[in-house]
């Protein structure tokens, strides 16, 4: 196979624009094709970018733009629903510090950086089919148009179409028994530390929040619910009904109760069941390859979904830069990424299970947690290596592979 000179990147969320920027740096021309008819600003709630994700953005000159729309988070404060402090965890002592931000601000910042670097982003192009040919790949979109390139990269999220084109038997996302909702309240939780993320193990649900500089409280709620609910299904329920349900679930919990009392229904976003990807057997086939949630979506509890997506985007571009032979490049990419991302996915699943603990387990957790936080759950010990991972863009990939 000849070297890759052009690429189609399917999906203009988080991984897509970063992949295209990194490819340009590797000398590959890339165009992003996004299914939404327009930039999907306003979609989603909050997420975090970990130090490793921010550092990876340096390789595409996008770290600063993202930090400007995020809030530094230096510690996590864990409480029970009665306001009792379970523990305060300083974050891993590493620069850059984790930032908390709205998903649409992150997507917008990345899109603007990509466009400023000359990446074309075309909206309203939903990929429906693709086929590898001997000298390229042909993509077909829902509007009847087509595009060709040397390589097609699926950055099309957890319900990836490209994943099933690579392998029709690829696994579906695993649904975890928690509903995920979020929003913003016209209310600042009193005395909240502006650089802390708060996690509340409430009596019937898990609640997270931070206070924004404008005096609003950004929050998310994880409510146990065994029924799988997709994003589309969750959005069939009107926001005022979700808000009503949340106010019931958190009626006894502080400050969730107060935060929800000051939230307008219009500001409630239903995301559906929490999902994560099980191990995907085939990351690539012929001239198609996956990045981001399409191949390694950890549960949001990992705090690493966006960060891993960004890392994979940069690593894929490095592998294509250093291996003119496409199969060798894609093999190198999978070898570099699979062990790391699957470890994080496993950790995310374990963290999520603490949110679904029954009443007895919950009581035990409250008793054991202070000790656990000082020992095996201590962020330095449990997250240090994960967050100190750095990609050296200039170093040859072969040197990194030699360590694997
Ligand atoms: C609208 C939206 C809101 C989100 N909100 C949150 C949130 O609040 N909190 C959180 O932690 N995570 C959220 N996520 C997930 C989060 O963005 C990802 O976990 C992570 O950042 C990895 O990004 P990604 O680019 O791999 O996937 P995504 O961010 O999911 O991006 C995938 C992109 O591909 C596009 N796409 C999908 N199928 C096709 C197709 N066939 N053709 C063309 N384009 C396609 C989608 O429209 C999307 O823009 C959200 C994702 C989306 C799409």
TrEMBL record:
Q: Which GO terms describe its molecular function?
A: FAD binding; monooxygenase activity
List the keywords (alphabetical). Answer: Monooxygenase, Oxidoreductase
Coiled coil segments of this chain: none
Domain FAD-binding per the UniProt entry, residue ranges: 5-347
Protein's recorded name: Monooxygenase
Source organism superkingdom: Bacteria
Q: Which Pfam families match?
A: FAD_binding_3
Q: Where is the signal peptide?
A: none
């Amino acid at each position: 196979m000849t070297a890759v000179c052009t690429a189609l990147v399917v999906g203009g969320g988080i991984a897509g624009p970063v992949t295209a920027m990194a490819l340009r740096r590797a000398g590959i021309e890339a165009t992003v094709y996004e299914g939404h008819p327009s930039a999907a600003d306003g979609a989603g709630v909050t997420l975090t970018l970990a130090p490793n994700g921010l550092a990876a953005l340096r390789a595409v000159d996008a770290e600063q733009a993202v930090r400007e729309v995020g809030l530094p988070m230096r510690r996590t404060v864990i409480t029970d629903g009665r306001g009792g402090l379970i523990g305060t965890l300083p974050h891993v002592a590493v620069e850059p510090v984790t930032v908390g931000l709205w998903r649409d601000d992150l997507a917008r910042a990345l899109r603007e950086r990509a466009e400023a670097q000359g990446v074309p982003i075309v909206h309203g192009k939903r990929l429906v089919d693709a086929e590898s040919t001997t000298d390229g790949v042909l993509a077909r979109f829902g509007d009847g148009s087509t595009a060709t390139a040397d390589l097609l990269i699926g950055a099309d999220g957890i319900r990836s179409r490209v994943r099933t084109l690579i392998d029709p038997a690829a696994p579906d996302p695993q649904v975890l028994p928690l509903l995920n909702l979020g929003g913003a309240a016209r209310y600042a939780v009193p005395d909240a530390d502006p650089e802390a993320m708060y996690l509340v193990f409430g009596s019937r649900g898990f609640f997270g929040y931070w206070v924004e500089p404008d005096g609003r409280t950004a929050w998310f709620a994880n409510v146990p619910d065994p029924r799988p609910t997709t994003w589309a299904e969750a959005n069939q329920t009107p926001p005022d009904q979700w808000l009503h349900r949340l106010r019931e679930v958190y009626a006894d919990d502080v400050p969730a109760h107060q935060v929800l009392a000051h939230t307008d229904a219009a500001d409630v976003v239903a995301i559906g069941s929490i999902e994560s990807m099980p191990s995907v057997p085939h990351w690539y086939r012929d001239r198609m390859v996956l990045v981001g949630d399409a191949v390694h979506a950890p549960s949001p509890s990992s705090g690493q979904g966006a960060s891993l997506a960004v890392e994979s985007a940069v690593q894929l571009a490095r592998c294509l830069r250093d291996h003119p032979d496409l199969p060798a490049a894609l093999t190198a990419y999978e070898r570099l990424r699979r062990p790391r991302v699957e470890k994080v996915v496993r950790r995310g699943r374990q963290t999520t299970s603490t949110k679904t603990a029954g009443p007895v387990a919950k009581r035990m957790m409250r008793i054991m947690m202070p000790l656990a936080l000082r020992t095996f759950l201590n962020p330095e010990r449990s997250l240090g290596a994960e967050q100190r991972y750095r990609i050296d863009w200039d170093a040859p990939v072969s040197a990194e592979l030699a360590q694997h």
